[in-house]
Amino acid sequence: MFGSQFKIVIGTFVVAFFAFVAIFAPLLAPFNPLSQDLFNRLAPPVWAERGSWTHALGTDNYGRDVLSRLIYGARVSILVGVTSMLLSCTLGSLCGVIAAYRGGRLGSFIMRFSDAHLAFPEILLAILIVATLGGSLLNIVLVLGISSWMVYARVVYGLTLSLKERPFIEAARAQGAAGWYIIRRHILPHLLPMIIVISTLQVAQMILTETALSFLGLGVPPPTPSWGNVLAEGRDRLFVAPWIANSAGIAIILVVWGINLLGNGLRERLDPRAGARG
Description:
This protein is an all-alpha fold and about 280 residues long. Helix content is about 75%, strand content about 0%.
């Protein structure tokens, strides 16, 4: 429907906007996201009757400004998405390239373990681990990173198997190049385009998983503002104050849409076969 360049431009704009909001949250937020005002609880947003620009998106049950909580919540959700993606990308890529290049029992063990891990639902595994360790920002990042490495491992494994039989790899071996040098110099550059695409799309998945965990009460503990916490707080007051959950839901939809649009555009740009099919 849209060209890859259009997707990249729009996706980059949306992602950059939310990244800007997250980075400069203290300057953009009109109120302290933890500050309570019980005399002004459940104030409606500006477009509703009795709404005002003082609280443009209204307040929650404790009188906290919803807009400020969304702005600071972007920090938590995006931080979790990016850091957990980096962890799973590093772990999965290393496992995949080692399993393919070294082969043997080590390679078979890594890939069989990856297959067993893939058979277990990611969200269920995350719920079990977080319920055991407790909800915190560090635990969420570790859980999401460790529960998603298999995607990278499978893709990198297949690509490395085809690359290591290429003539330029054989030539490097014949010249006495060490294995890690060949991986770093000749294999990883060919893997980067696909890793970048997967990583981009994985950030959106991480944000959704973090939101789901926070919504279930297993994510970042309240009152720390995160989009999942705001969504959970608005769930019980959906008919009385729908703007709380709706605001968080729209923010999640927009950032995930922007990341997916960017990822799809990069996939079409970096993979000629995808562009031909589109």
